């Protein structure tokens, strides 16, 4: 159950962080204005809060593992929001990152 909760929190964090960054990007680079930028800043703040809800209390481990989720999530976001089509190397890289997440977060450790 803890793994399912952790994965769900990583996905939720990715939605807020990547979505927030995308909103800021749209506001600045696509000239959509301050409302988009402000919504992005709020979403980025919510991401920071969501990251604290992980069952593991080790900040370094959580953020290191989240980096892999961010990589894969960013490619997925680009596909959905911007029509980006990753090539095989993007996909392989994202899978390697997700494998790293699994090792960092979910391999049993001696306590």
Care to give the gist of this entry?
The protein has one domain (2-106). The chain contains four helices and no strands. It has helices at residues 2-29, 34-51, 59-82, 88-106.
Distance between the termini: 19 Å
Overall outline:
flat
Order of helices and strands: HHHH
List low-confidence stretches. Answer: none
Counting structural domains, the number is: 1
Regarding quaternary structure, what we see is: single chain
- Work out the helicity level: over 70%
The average pLDDT is: 96
Beta-strand content: under 5%
Major β-sheet annotation: none
> Strand tally, please?
0
Q: Decide which structural class fits the backbone.
A: mainly alpha
**What is the CA-atom radius of gyration, in angstroms?**
15 Å
Total number of helices: 4
Family: Belongs to the UPF0060 family.
InterPro entries: EmrE-like, UPF0060
Protein name: YnfA family protein
Transmembrane segments: 33-50, 62-79, 91-108
Question: What can you tell me about this protein's structure?
Answer:
One of its GO terms (cellular component) is plasma membrane. Pfam families: UPF0060. It is a multi-pass membrane protein. This protein has 111 residues and is mainly α. It has one domain (2-106). It has four helices and no strands. The protein has helices spanning 2-29, 34-51, 59-82, 88-106.
């Amino acid at each position: 159950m803890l793994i399912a909760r952790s994965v769900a929190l990583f996905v939720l964090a990715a939605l807020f962080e990547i979505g927030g960054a995308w909103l800021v990007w749209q506001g600045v680079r696509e000239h959509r204005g301050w409302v988009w930028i402000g919504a992005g800043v709020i979403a980025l703040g919510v991401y920071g809060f969501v990251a604290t809800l992980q069952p593991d209390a080790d900040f370094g481990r959580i953020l290191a593992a989240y980096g892999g989720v961010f990589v894969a999530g960013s490619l997925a976001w680009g596909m959905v929001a911007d029509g980006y089509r990753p090539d095989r190397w993007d996909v392989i890289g994202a899978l390697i990152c997700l494998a790293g997440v699994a090792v960092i977060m979910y391999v049993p450790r001696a306590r």
